[in-house]
Amino acid sequence: MSQPKYSDTKAENAAFEAEVKSIENWWQTDRQKGIKRPYTAKSIAALRNIGFKVEYSSSTQARKLWQILNDHNANGTYELTFGMVDPMIVKETAKFMQTVYVSGAMCGISQASWPGEDHADYPADLVPSVVKRIFNTQLFQDQRQTQLRMRFDEKDREGLECIDYLQPIVADADMGFGTLTGCMKAARSFVESGVAMIHIDDLAMGLKKFTNGEGRTIVPTSEYLSRLTTIRMTFDVMGADTMLLCRCDSDNAEFITSVLDPRDHPYVLGATTLIKPFNFAVEEGKSIGKSYLNVKKEWKASAGVMTFDDAVKQKATPEQFSAYLAEVTAKITPLMERRNISKRILVEDIVWDWELPRTPLGQYMWQWSTKAVIERAILAAPLGDVTWSRQDKPNKKDMFEFHSEVRKVFPNRLFGFGYMGAYDFLKAGYTQEEFESFPADIAKMGVVWQVQPVWNTQGLSLHARQFASRFKEMGIAGYTREVSKPAIAGMATDKYGKPTARGGYLADAFFDVVAGVEITGTEATTS
Ligand SMILES: C[C@](O)(C(=O)O)[C@H](CC(=O)O)C(=O)O
């Protein structure tokens, strides 16, 4: 019979109390102390493998990233990186980039066994598996470099490049893969992959549209906060310092899945003329061959679609409306109370119905605003380490307002920002100079981690297309001239002048060590 884990319940209590204390102490560290949890250290301890501490590489990488981003924040500078999925490309960027980004969209299109658009419909461990491959390659390249360097004596080593291959990896955790337990498992896989930071957003699963003119669909604030809490709880249970980037996709969102959270009520759209439901209008439109978008536009106009507050404003005098606003903004005011307050002040019922505009997929219509995005980001911030408001297109006013308002509440907040592939700064009203200085300008507001996520489908595709066409023309002789010779010339070489790209000497070193041959210093050979 095996030994029981504890000699008696007193020993068990002592081990449990020690675990609680160690969590409390950990939460006081510089890295952790800014996070506000809605649960206790005791609850986390009660979910742990007590007395069995695993130190994850993810924590090491997260602490490194935390330092990098805080240094940028202190200096008003920034890290600008791009999306990568191929470990060998990551290796080449190590000399120039401090971080690596693994994009969900790029994994979905190029790494899943069945490719697709950015729906996060691939297996939940796909992005972690890409991160793991990249992280293992980083370790390998670092090990290869150690082996190469240790073959030289100290003086000769001075002329050899010495690269930090272990750039922290930031990865896309999309919407958290559905259920609470799904979200937990995804977070666990990310930690085990060696990731430094993941981002999670407030989008609804399965409702992303790309080209049909429909906007994004978000989940209620409460669901977004539970996703973030689930991730944070998983990190805490694992004892991982992994960073959490709270991405908010409410900018330009058009729909919300549910109206259960009163914090969302001011932004839900309702009909002020009680016509037939939008759903019916869509069916009728279909039967006579009208496009969905036209039906939507016409229906919204006939139904007088607006927020409840706008419906009140339309009926109230300016004094009545100010009195109404003063009451409803004093605290979280659900729709029912908004109705009662407006009725008391205006002495009439406001005709307004948020069920009529529901779409054939059940979404409620939503009026996005920077204020709504700011409110979400502020609620989310204490659970995470970095904030990112994803924008459909660059917008000067929103950029400034968002970051400065969040900073009024969290003065030292770190932000991330993604440059979507189709962004056109000049069309969005920026001058060329403003565009050039944009990354540095937003860094001054705390936007310290910046990314171009979709380089794979732009830069890499462009290079591949150009190379394929050139290869067709020049053949293998041209390849040697234009590709292999310059590539080899650019590689670090071993002490005998051989290029070191794939680390053949590392492979051989394992054999040498087993055979008792010394592999360091001037006696080493690299044959
Ligand atoms: C950043 C992003 O989440 C990604 O998966 O790379 C995408 C990128 C894109 O679709 O342009 C996103 O911004 O939603």
Report on this model:
Belongs to the isocitrate lyase/PEP mutase superfamily. Isocitrate lyase family. Mg(2+) binds at residue 172. It catalyses: (2S,3R)-3-hydroxybutane-1,2,3-tricarboxylate = pyruvate + succinate. With 527 residues, the protein is α/β, with parallel strands linked by helices. Helix 17 links the parallel strand 12 and strand 13. Helix content is 47%, strand content 9%. The chain has helices at 9-27, 41-45, 57-75, 87-93, 104-110, 126-150, 154-157, 180-193, 221-238, 278-287, 292-303, 308-315, 318-328, 335-346, 370-380, 396-409, 432-443, 459-489, 504-514, and strands spanning 79-82, 100-102, 169-172, 197-200, 217-218, 243-248, 255-256, 269-270, 306-307, 364-365, 386-389, 414-418, 447-452. The protein is globular, with a radius of gyration of 28 Å. Helix 6 packs parallel to helix 8, helix 8 packs across helix 9 (221-238) and helix 15 packs parallel to helix 16 (396-409). The chain has 5 domains: 1-53, no CATH class; 56-203 and 221-243 and 388-454, Alpha-Beta Barrel (TIM Barrel); 262-365, Arc Repressor Mutant, subunit A, CATH 1.10.10.850; 458-490, no CATH class; 495-527, no CATH class. An 8-stranded parallel β-sheet has the order 1-13-12-11-6-4-3-2, sandwiched between helices. It has 19 helices and 13 strands. The protein binds alpha-methylisocitric acid.
